[in-house]
């Protein structure tokens, strides 16, 4: 049994829309640049080897199609319930309930991976400090940022995301220089087929890396939730 969407919209009225379009765009972009890319990519490379390029292209294509569909539905049915409300409307209330709480569980688990990754990162600079201390500190900071009013939260998220975007651009520039201009024979596209080849673990390894790549794109849907 489906519900009229107007009833769902009426029920979910109350949230204030204070995030600008640029903040929403940067939140979505920054959400996709995080643990899944900076830390998770090492697992993807371990699974797929050089074919990890194909894995991330497949993951990117899936994310692109997903966001295209979600964008159309968000334009047609703007509501804070987002895809949970769409499942409730087009399928049934149980589906809407399950989608909402599955997404909640996914985000909660993802936060755990984020702060765990921070503990691992900080070990590089402060090897004498136990990782759990960084996990506690950054968890408290994360809770503090999310407890702010939406306007301040949007501003912080915008600049944090901008830093990550600039970092990615810098990494790409440095990598391009190493491969094409450094003159070091240890770098280059010839490594894609060196050793055990382009797919050292076969198609299975490449598809395992697709799973990791899809995790890397987690949070791009946040723009629909925040909108």
UniProtKB/TrEMBL annotation:
Keyword rRNA-binding on entry: no
Recorded topology in the membrane: Multi-pass membrane protein
Domain Amino acid permease/ SLC12A as annotated: residue spans: 24-227
Domain of life where this protein originates: Eukaryota
A family per Pfam: AA_permease
TM stretches of this protein: 21-39, 45-70, 90-112, 132-150, 162-183, 203-226
Location in or out of the cell: Membrane
GO cellular component, one term: membrane
UniProt keywords, alphabetically: Membrane, Transmembrane, Transmembrane helix, Transport
Keyword field contains Aminoacyl-tRNA synthetase: no
One GO term of the biological process aspect: amino acid transport
PANTHER family the UniProt entry points to: GABA PERMEASE, GAMMA-AMINOBUTYRIC ACID PERMEASE
Protein known as: Amino acid permease/ SLC12A domain-containing protein
Species in which this protein is naturally found: Caenorhabditis remanei
Native organism taxonomy: Eukaryota, Metazoa, Ecdysozoa, Nematoda, Chromadorea
């Amino acid at each position: 049994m489906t519900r009229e969407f107007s009833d769902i919209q009426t029920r979910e009225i109350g949230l204030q829309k204070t995030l600008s379009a640029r903040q929403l765009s940067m939140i979505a972009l920054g959400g996709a640049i995080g643990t899944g890319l900076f830390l998770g990519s090492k697992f993807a490379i371990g699974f797929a080897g050089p074919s990890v390029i194909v894995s991330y292209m497949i993951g990117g294509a899936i994310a692109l199609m997903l966001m295209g569909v979600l964008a159309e539905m968000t334009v047609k049915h703007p509501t804070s319930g987002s895809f949970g409300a769409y499942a409730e409307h087009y399928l049934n209330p149980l589906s809407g309930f399950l989608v909402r709480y599955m997404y909640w569980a996914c985000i909660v688990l993802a936060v755990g991976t984020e702060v765990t990754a921070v503990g691992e990162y900080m070990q590089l600079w402060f090897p004498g400090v136990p990782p759990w201390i960084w996990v506690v500190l950054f968890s408290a900071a994360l809770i503090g940022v999310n407890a702010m009013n939406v306007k301040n939260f949007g501003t912080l998220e915008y600049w944090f995301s901008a830093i990550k975007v600039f970092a990615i651009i810098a990494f790409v520039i440095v990598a391009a220089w190493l491969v094409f201009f450094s003159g070091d024979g240890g770098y280059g596209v010839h490594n894609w087929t060196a050793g055990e080849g382009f797919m050292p673990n076969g198609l299975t390894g490449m598809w395992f890396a697709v799973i990791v790549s899809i995790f890397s794109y987690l949070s791009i849907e946040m723009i629909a939730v925040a909108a």
